[in-house]
Amino acid sequence: MKNAETPVFKLILIGGLSSLGSALMAELLKRQHEVIAVVKDLNTLAPRPGLHFKIGGLNSAAQAEQSVAGGSAVVCLLAALAADDFATQLRMSRALVAGMSRTTIRRLVLVGDFSVLDNSEGHSEQQRACADQIVDLLQRSQLHWTLVNTPQQVAGLGIEHFRQTHGTLEPGLAEPLQRLARVAAAMVDTLELKLHHGEHVNFVF
């Protein structure tokens, strides 16, 4: 039974069709939070208790507003939506912030290629410029935001993989499964404990 003192989130997950997204869904459901995954196809994943789907996206502020409606917090995985396309990630971020500003939702965890903010070596000028603009956009907003660096991932991991992160029969998956599960747990801790507002964090395990 869930501790009545622990707040229950109705979390909107955008870009959840990724390994980190699967880890987040598994962790949130384990803690008895409700997850609403924004998808393009309602038949993408099998339904399960606590996990719901809605059609949406970040093509405009209006679409973003509709996508996040009904939630209490938003986690957006930018790299899963537009990998290595930093101009598109910036455009989506603008739509998301504008859409959320039309709602009462204020908590946003934005996951992306933000390591460039710590060290520009090995990153393009475009990536640095887009990351800087995203930070400026958030700082000028009324949102309670956290930026998280995208962790290293292994493609193709689903929720079922994260239900058992030890003793997997698939060679080489134990370490990345456990690492992503720990990152997901740290992100959910950030939401539950109201940590890292207005901060850029990198979860390293």
Quick structural gist:
With 205 residues, this protein is α/β, with parallel strands linked by helices. It contains 7 helices and 7 strands, in the order βαββαβααβαβααβ.
Describe the structure.
The chain is an alpha/beta fold. The protein has a single domain, classed as Rossmann fold. The protein has seven helices and seven strands, in the order E-H-E-E-H-E-H-H-E-H-E-H-H-E. It has a seven-stranded parallel beta sheet with strand order 3-2-1-4-5-6-7. The radius of gyration is 16 Å and the shape is globular.
Alpha plus pi helix count: 7
In the sheet with the most strands, the strands line up as: 3-2-1-4-5-6-7
In the CATH hierarchy, the third-tier topology is known as Rossmann fold
Mean pLDDT: 91
| The named CATH superfamily | NAD(P)-binding Rossmann-like Domain
Number of strands: 7
What fraction of the residues are assigned to beta strands by DSSP? 15-25%
Please indicate the count of domains.
1
Give the helix/strand class.
Answer: alpha/beta
Shape descriptor: globular
